[in-house]
Amino acid sequence: MQWLRRISLVLAQVFALSAAFWLGPSAATEQQQEATAHEAQAWRDLQQLAADAMAGRATGSAGSLLAQQYLQKRFAALGLQPLGSNYLQPFSFHEGFSERHGVNVLGLRRGCGQPERYVVVTAHYDHLKPRGKKIFNGADDNASGVAGLLYLAAQTQQSCPLYSYLFLATDAEELGLDGAKAFIAKPPVALDAIVLNINLDMISRGESNQRLYLAGKKQLPQLTQFAEKVQTPLKLTLAHDGRQSSLGRRSQPPVDWSNASDHAVFRKAGIPFLYFGVDVHPQYHTPQDDWQRIDPQYFFAALRLIEQSRRWLESLPPQTLARSQKSSTN
Ligand SMILES: [Zn+2]
Questions:
Q1: What is the whole-number distance in angstroms between the Cα of residue 312 and the centre of ligand 1?
Q2: Interval between CA 124 and ligand 1 midpoint (Å)
Q3: Tell me, what's the pLDDT at 328?
Q4: pLDDT-derived band at 318, boundaries 50, 70, 90
Q5: How far is the centre of ligand 1, averaged over its atoms, from the C-alpha of 234 (Å)?
Q6: How far does the centroid of ligand 1 lie from the alpha carbon of residue 129, in Å?
Q7: How far is the CA of 142 from the centre of ligand 1 (A)?
């Protein structure tokens, strides 16, 4: 029996080797092709949202309507479920003494492990209205974050996530975080069931130092370990909560990272958050914030890093997020 066992071992090895040869690389290539396809799609999404046709996607504008239509098509293609009859969540808010209307775009991916707990991924799709003939395309701010949101939705389509995910493209962020406020004021699920907010706002312009900021460690101290261990070509910097000087440039006004974007509304509701964003750059809120100025390689690296953080969060013991939630409400 010894020789028979040896032959079968040798045969098994030969089979394993040829399987590795035939299946291994092709499976790896397939995965790589899929990853590259997701990145290419994100790049197309960014370009579409930052196109002149959408004219900056200002709240209430024709360009905003085009952006909503585009997002609805993409949400449907990604298999996200609407929470009502469609993905649109209209709301009203006040700007000074006048009442205004905005529209959030919301879709659900039901989780497979703990579907009764929700992660809300936010990115604002609105930007600024044209001034005269000058269009503010807002490619980095925040077509990039919305493309990132769609990228994460694609990842959760590929493998079912632990938690349920609400993908929320907010409106009227530029006017005062009004889309996020409307969502929190009338949440589609109980606020207690929301364990985390991942907010993406300006994720494509790392500039010469390739830096990307990550805020949220006050509510989620484990972020320090993630930032230390994560493999990325980018310079991931944990932004301190509270008032901080921007990149140490004294001439810049201080940036309050914890209030900088939609995640502030979640933070105030006692929900821990991860906020990814770059520093203020010279084209910030100018007509020159165009996709042509973005280095796609930086953007893709940021997408991969954000997806890594999402997977890392899902690998944490579930009570971690619940504990953060309780401690942050104190
Ligand atoms: Zn923004």
A1: 25
A2: 7
A3: 42
A4: confident
A5: 21
A6: 14
A7: 5
**pLDDT tens digits for range 29-84:** 887 788 799 999 999 999 999 999 999 999 999 999 999 999 999 999 999 999 99
Structure tokens at 300: 């893709």
Angle at 153 between CA 278 and CA 232, to 5 degrees: 40
Mean pLDDT of 210-236: 94
| Phi and psi torsions of 199, nearest 5° | -110, 130
- Report CA(262)–ligand 1 centroid distance (Å): 9
> How many angstroms separate the CA atoms of 206 and 317, rounded?
32
* pLDDT at position 257: 82
Cβ-based neighbours of 178, under 8 Å, separated by 6 or more: 91, 93, 100, 102, 171, 172
Q: In terms of C-beta density within 10 A (0-12 exposed, 13-18 middle, 19 or more buried), how is residue 83 classed?
A: middle
> From ligand 1's centre to the CA of 154, what distance in Å?
22
Rounded to 5°, the CA angle 181-80-213 comes to 55
> Position 313: which residue type?
L
Distance of CA 245 from the midpoint of ligand 1 (Å): 18
What is the distance in A from the centroid of ligand 1 to the CA of 138? 8
Please name every residue paired with 164 in a beta bridge, in sequence order, or none if there are none: 118
Distance from the CA of 269 to the center of ligand 1, in angstroms? 20
SS3 56: coil
Instruction: Map residue 35 onto helix, strand or coil.
Output: helix
Distant-in-sequence, close-in-space partners of 233: CB < 8 Å, separation ≥ 6 = 210, 301
Q: How far is the CA of 47 from the centre of ligand 1 (A)?
A: 16
Mean per-residue pLDDT for 210-218? 94
- CA distance linking residue 1 with residue 7, whole number of Å: 10
Q: Report the mean per-residue pLDDT for the chain.
A: 89
Ligand 1 centre to CA of 114 (Å) is 31
**Dihedral (Cα; 227, 231, 232, 233), 10-degree rounding:** 120
Cα separation, 193 vs 198, whole angstroms: 15
Parallel/antiparallel/unpaired status of strands 114-124 and 163-170: parallel
Name the 3-class secondary structure at 273: strand
